[in-house]
Amino acid sequence: MNKGTTDKMKTTLGSHCLVMAYAHIAHDCQLGNHIIMANNVTLAGHVIIEDWAILEGLVAVQQFVHIGAHSFIAGGSLVRKNVPPFTKAAREPLSYIGINNIGLRRRGFTNEDINHIQDIYRILFVQNSNIKKALTEIEKEIPESTLRSQIVEFIHNSPKGLMRGFTPSDNDDE
C-alpha cells in the first residue's frame, strides 16, 4: 500500500477488508469497507472502490477508475472503465455479465430490490447501446428509489466511462 501524493495527500483502506497476498494498492486510492481483494490484485493510482466490492485474483485496475458498491469483478480482468454498483464484470474487454445476485442476497437485499436493480441494468446494458438514451428511459420507466438514484448518480459521475454492456460471446450459438 502506497501513501498519497500531493494530489490527495492520503491513501485509505476502510475497515473489515481482506487484502490477500501480493495485492498492490497504489497512491491516492480510496477503498471503502468490507472489500475483498484476492491474490495479485493491482490497483493503479487514484482508484476508488466502494463498500462490499470483490475483486478476484489477478485483477488489474487502471488509474482513476471507480468501482461501485457491491460489485464483483472476475479473476484476470483488466479494468479500464468504471464498474457501476451491484454488477458483475468479466471478459475482455471488461463487460457487464449481470448483477451480483449472490452477494446482494448475502447482504440482505430483498428479491424486490434485486429485481429493481436488474430492471435498471437491463435497460442500461442489454436494451441500449447509448448511455444517455438509457438514462432517459430509466428515469421515465423505473420508479424512483434509493437504489435507482445510487446507480444513476454513479453513471452521471463517470467521466471516464463505463464498462461495456452485454454482448453475446461467439460461443453462445453452440
Descriptive report:
With 174 residues, this protein is of the alpha/beta class. The chain has a single domain, classed as 3 Solenoid (UDP N-Acetylglucosamine Acyltransferase, domain 1), CATH 2.160.10. Helix content is 25%, strand content 19%. The strands form three sheets. A six-stranded mixed β-sheet has the order 2-5-8-11-13-14. It has a four-stranded parallel β-sheet with strand order 1-4-7-10, with no helix packed on it. A hairpin with a 4-residue loop joins strand 13 and strand 14 (95-99). The longest helix has 16 residues, at 111-126. The relative contact order is 0.11. The model has no long low-confidence stretch (mean pLDDT 93).
Précis, in short:
25% of the residues lie in helices and 19% in strands. The protein is α/β, with parallel strands linked by helices and 174 residues long. It has a six-stranded mixed β-sheet with strand order 2-5-8-11-13-14. A four-stranded parallel β-sheet has the order 1-4-7-10, with no helix packed on it. A four-stranded parallel β-sheet has the order 3-6-9-12, with no helix packed on it.
Rg for CA atoms: 16 Å
User: Can you give the mean pLDDT?
Assistant: 93
Structural class: alpha/beta
Categorize the overall geometry: globular
Question: Describe the biggest sheet?
Answer: 6 strands, mixed
Low-confidence stretches: none
**What is the number of domains?**
1
Following the backbone from N to C, one meets helices and strands in this order, namely: EEEEEEEEEEEEEEHHHH
Strand content: 15-25%
